[in-house]
Write the C-alpha cells for this entry.
Amino acid sequence: MICEKCGCDYAKSRAACPECGAPAPGYEKWASEGTWEPATPVPGPDEAPVLASWKTSVGWSVLGLLAGGYAWGIVSMVIAALLTAPVFLAIKASGSAIAAAAPVVVYTMLTSMFAVVVQSVVGIAYALFFYPSYFTARPRLKASGPIAFANCTFGGLIGLLWNSNLTKRIKGVSYAVVAALFAISLAMIVVAVPVTLNTANEDPVPFQLAFSRAYPDLVEAPDGYRTTESAPGLMFPPSGNSADEDVEAPFDMELEVFESAEDGVSFTVPWGWMEVDSPLGDDETVAYSPVGKPDVCMECSVADVWESLAAEERERLAREEVDNSLFSLEAIEEQTEMEDAVVDVVRIGGVNYIREAGFFADSASSGEVPCVCSLMHVENGVMYLFTYWDEDEYVNDYYDQFEEAVASAKFSTPEWVKE
C-alpha cells in the first residue's frame, strides 16, 4: 500500500503509515480532541518485520565497509587456501612443467583464483537469498544493525544503496545486478583457471618471471636467471660473455641472440624486448625496445674508425693500434650537450667501454639511472656503439637490462674489414 501523503510503501494490514502517521484508507478514526490516534497494526501474512522496525545504522554501515570488508577478505583467503591445498598437491605430483616453478608461485596463483570463487559464490547467495528476504515476512536477519553491517560487508558500496532501499521500503533491482556481476566474475575464473594452468605449463619461465618481478622477496628467479645488485626485483637471462658462468637457458627456453657476421657483433636480447625501427636513422646495425614501451630503446651500431682517419693518420697508425685510447674523455665531455653528463671508462662483461651518460633520474627499483647512455668500444679500428634512451613519462627499470645485453656482447672482425 502506498501512502498518499509521503509515498511510503507499507503493508496493507497497517492502520496507518509507519513514516508519517497518515491514516490508511478505511481506518480514519478521530479522537475527541480531533487528533489522529493510529490503530495498533494487525499482523498479517504480508507483514515484513524488518521494514516495521528498520532504522538505518550509520555506525554498523561504516563498520561493515571497513572492518567487515577486510575481515571477509581475510576469511575468504583462508578458505581459498584450504581449497587450494589438494589442487596444489595434485599439480606437484603430476610431474608437469609448472610443477618445476617455485611452490609459492603456484600456490599464490591458485589461492587468488579460489578466493574470487569463494567471494563470488557468497556474494551471489547474499544478493539473491538474504537481501530480498528483508522485504518478506520471513527475513533471514531481523535486527537493523547486523543487516546494515552484512549489506556493506558483502555488497560493499552497493550495501549503502541496500540500506537506503530498506529505509524507503523499495527493494529495487540492484541485488539482481550485483548477483549478475558476481556470476560473470565466477564464470571468468572458471575459464581462467584451466587456461592459466595450461599456459603456465607450456611456458613456465615467463610465468615464474612475472611473479619473481612482482614479489622478489618471496619468489626466486627461474634457474639460469639472476638479479643485479642495483635491481634485485628484475630478472635477466645468463650473459654469454662471463668467464665464470656457463648456464643453459632454463626449461630449454631459447633466448633471442642477435648476431651479425657482417658487422662482427652479437649479443643476447633482453627477455621481453623486440626489434624495432630506430628513429635516429639507418646507420644503426639493430634496435630493440621492450614490448609495449616504444619510448625506451637500445641500439647497436658499428663504424670503421680507422677508415675515417686522415690519410697521414692511417699511414702512422695500423688498424690494430686504433682502440679506446684514441679518444679523449675530456674532449667528449666538452662536446656533450647533457648538463649532468658523466664521461668515464667502465668495464662491462670483461670489456672496457667509454661511457657517456646523463639525465639521471630515480627509477622504480633500480635507484638513480641515466635516461640517456652510450657505451663505446673500439678495437681493430672498428667502433661498436651501444646507445640507450628512456623517454617514457615514468623512468622505467630497463637500464639494467640494457647493461646486461652489453655484457653479453661478443666482437669479431667485420666481413667488410676482411675484404
About this structure: Confidence is low (pLDDT under 50) at residues 29-34, 36-45, 224-253. Residues 1-47 form one domain. Residues 355 and 375 are 5 Å apart (CA to CA). DSSP finds twelve helices and twelve strands in the chain.
